[in-house]
Amino acid sequence: MNYIPNEFARNLSMQTTNTIGIIVRDITNPFYAKICRAIENTASEHAYTTLILNTDGIREKDGQKLEIRWLTYPSRQELPLLAESAQATLKEIGMDVQINCTSDNNTIRKDPTLWDVYASAMVTAPTGDPEYFFTSCTLDESASNNGHYHSDKLEDLEKQMKQEFDADKRSDLAIQMQQTILDDNAYVFCSHLRMSMIMQSNVTGLTAHPCDYYELTADLDIN
Question: Is 159 helix (H, G, I), strand (E, B) or coil?
Answer without folding.
Answer: helix
